[in-house]
Amino acid sequence: MTRRVLRSPTGLAGAVVVALLVLGALVSLVWTPFDPTLVDPASTWLPPLSGGHLLGTDGSGRDLASQLLAGARVTAFTAATATVVAAVVGVGLAVLAAVPRHGGEVVAHLIDVLVALPTLLLAMVLAAVYGGSVWTAVVAIGIGTGVNVARVARAEMTSVLGADYVLAAEVAGAGTGRIVRRHVLPNVAPVLVVQLSLVLALAVLAEAALSYLGFGTPPPTPSWGRMLQDLQQYVTVHPLVVVWPGCAIAVVVLGFTLLGDALRDAIDPRMRLPGQAAPAVEVLP
Amino acid sequence: MDGEAAGSADVLLRAEALHRHYPLPRQRLLHRRPVRHALRGVDLELAAGGSVGIVGESGSGKSTLVRLLLALDRADAGAVSYRGRAVEPGPPRTLRWFRREVQVVLQDPFASLDPRMRVADIVAEPLECLDVPGDHAARVAELLGAVGLEPGPAKDRYPHEFSGGQRQRIAIARALAPGPRVLVGDEPLSALDVAVRGQVMDLLRGLAADLGLALVLVSHDIGAMHRLCEQIMVLHEGGVVERGRTADVLAAPSHPYTRRLLAAVPQLPDREQV
């Protein structure tokens, strides 16, 4: 499967972008051109490639390239952990809703209600109560996208549970736990992988939006969303500076989305047929 | 379980006056939900080593009967028992004894094998779930051999690497794994093409003879019935309209519905046998 993903141009592009993000985050742990939080009143608003600043500096004289590198850390961390939360929430709720027994219907309706709840709003409420932090963002994004995963996974699990091989397993003496572990989860795994790769993209976007709004990563931790917020008021005077974090966010989101698309194509050739809608995670409201 | 165990010794599977109905979706707001009577008072007796064929068109209640016989569904009225012991759907633990004795082969070999499991794991599943003692790997190899597959190359492959007939053989191996005395076949031949059907039929007949298996075979293939089943019962709209020895019923059907079923079988001008 990995080979098929990398052979498609979209998959390769997505993989390269994701690899760059991870690389940037790792490199920033040991080295950045300057201290990303170092304020230098002597060198504010330097243009790119001057005074050793690759992308220039902001209004406090902080190096933009270093901030971008260090911001990749938050982005990669949030995306990865939020996706883990989404996987746990999504699979957990989907199993509860899909396995036939008392209460499954209730969970299914609960999922539908939660899907209607905007993720960003949930994050803001959590941030208002518990204070804005990376973890608040992770939990909010994980739950918000997790319920979408749950809805898709539930539909998939319901169809797997109706398959003859589940009936055969029942006659073979398998209990519900074993049927879920050995038959249902392996057979919905491809769909889950695709859903979760799209959650990665949504998580990057949501983290940037939350930080931009001031509910995400608190200062002084560098974050792309907060860079945008810091810089936006000067956009008419120094239009170039907002381009860097803006592009970084857009490219990474695009990278995850392309990778998700390539994964979906690699897993299910039917999805490539024209005119057939592929399952997708709803875009954040 | 109850004191009935002394009943006629060689009857394995017995169903008495089975009723099952399903509520249908409401048609009109203030009216009652319509009801579909899938089974209305069906009896069945299967002797050790015997074989019963169940024929009937789609919707005649065959599948419902199979579900009840396998304790996958609860009857509204009537009872299923195995050697006098009541059989009721419930948690897998309470049904282990029954699952060791009664196994199933389903219709579609492309749907009844988990596409993401290796053949060895598929065949071993009942061994693990039913706590069958012994060396499972050796038993799997023995079973694959018994159904005419080479165990060496077959066991590490996935179902999609096999043809329909081979897959049905794998399904049969799985059903035989716990050493059952009753094999229920829910249209086990109808998804196979004609040439393969004959081979699988011969395999079933050979296995039944070698292992002393009792067969319950659901089918609309009258020819298969003739070759595999001593007894036959004809289901029509949830009730048994005719039953008896297969040869007698096929030679001289007494119920008009049976005659219609037989007339519907396509015939070649000169066939050696049914």
Automatic annotation (TrEMBL), chain A:
Protein localization: Cell membrane
Regions that span the bilayer: 12-31, 76-99, 106-128, 134-153, 188-215, 235-263
Ribosomal protein recorded as keyword: no
Membrane topology: Multi-pass membrane protein
Keyword set, alphabetical order: Cell membrane, Membrane, Transmembrane, Transmembrane helix, Transport
Primary localisation category: membrane
Secretion signal span: none
Domain ABC transmembrane type-1: residue ranges: 72-260
The family this protein is said to belong to: Belongs to the binding-protein-dependent transport system permease family.
Name used for this protein in its record: ABC transporter permease
Species this protein is from: Pseudonocardia xinjiangensis
Organismal lineage: Bacteria, Bacillati, Actinomycetota, Actinomycetes, Pseudonocardiales
